[in-house]
Amino acid sequence: MERLAPMRLYSLSKRHFVLVFVVFLVCFALTVFIGVAGPDCVVTRTIGWLILQRIYLACVFCSPPLNTYNQQLWLTCVMQAEHSNIRDFQQPFEINVELKGVVHDATEVPINKMHQKLRKLDCSPTKCEEIIVLHLGYLNYTQYRVKVSFGGLENITYDLRVKFVWKTYNQTFSQVEIWFRFVFVVLTFMVTCMFAHSLRKFSMRDWGIEQKWMSILLPLLLLYNDPFFPLSFLVNSWFPGTLDAFFQALFLSSLLLFWLCVYHGIRVQGERKCLTFYLPKLIIVGLLWLSAVTLGIWQTVNELQDPTYQYKVDIGNFQGMKVFFLVVVALYILYLIFLVVRACSELKNMPYSDLRLRFLTALTFVVLVISVVILYLRFGAKALQNNFVAELSTHYQNYLPAEFLSFYGLLNFYLYTLAFVYSPSKNALYDIQLKDNPAFSMLNDSDDEVIYRSDYEDMPLQNGRAIKATAKYQDESDSD
């Protein structure tokens, strides 16, 4: 017999289920409202339109004053053709960038030598595609001076205008982000402690697979919210940002692994062997995690050596990485769909296992739909183009923090909701003690029957089953 600690999920009525979803959506809507009402994520400073000569143009200019609350710095350029009757065209050209840092006494410190990059000018009759000139993942100086020159545009027979744009994170938004993360760190710590406290009276061997996974995901959610995030504003280093990206990849990969294990584990009773149960899932999710970490490290290392680096420069290796990542994602989705369909077909006649399955599927489906909408609004339909990694951090629809705050709030409230429904109810220990009594013993083979079902299936409540079992036991004693 497999004995499991009960869940609050089993004691909830339909009205309670509706209330759980309503509270979840209200909390998520609150984060969206805060994001919409909050400050812009990115502030820009434009250096006016310059006439780009066909042979060569060089210009030198300084960035706006910066501090650690600006977090990162981008320099982009936008070109526009003077002639109004042109057609779509593409033109390769060269861009040379020299970057220097300005210290307090106005001394300029060279950051990198002159870098020559090949870029492609992609223009339509109205405008040309924005080009990322350089990107700094952290700010080591209060101001930067850059020299940009163009070459290879002599084949163009009409004049071009060029506009340079500095982009940094808004200082007010950085303060909002600090407080937002801090609040979720505190909430996650409280939820983790309350969930662990609710399971303290049950042996870990009696925990259900959802409860075991929640005891792993909640501490990882604490890292996902990154309690070390304020270090980014105290230390001028690439390490805090890389650590934050590592924590995010770790949590998201664990969440993907959680879905695979739970949908498979609900219908697999008894011992779940590591080789046959966990290993295939670890391989699939591990490849996704490895791809995300590799891309992050790849970008960080190259940008430290060359702030003008983009994935377009190394397009061959990047295409291979992108294809590999998409193949693994497709494999994961097919495997997850297979587990969900098989679980639904096998557990549809088991009331309590079916309840676990339906609740997790419904809530996860809502979260996935909202996540897809957020990602589409943030990155657009061109998120998987050749240069999508270099442009992810610069593309904010309407420059509002709603996309950032809503995604963090969505994942946090999703885990809080699961922790609530998977935690034992207040009278769970009393029910277990009744089952340990031989007079009220209900021995069966499945999770449903071990916890809640008995030979008296016509009695819907546990107390009713216990009373009926007690009456039967007393009648047999009187007859003896």
UniProtKB/TrEMBL annotation:
The keyword Nucleotide-binding does not apply. The chain crosses the membrane at residues 17-37, 178-196, 216-239, 245-266, 278-301, 321-345, 357-379, 399-422. This is Transmembrane protein 181. Keywords: Membrane, Transmembrane, Transmembrane helix. Residues 170-426 form the Wntless-like transmembrane domain. Its main location: membrane. It comes from Tetraodon nigroviridis. It comes from the Eukaryota. It is found in: Membrane. Residues 62-169 form the TMEM181 GOLD domain. It is a multi-pass membrane protein. The keyword Oxidoreductase does not apply.
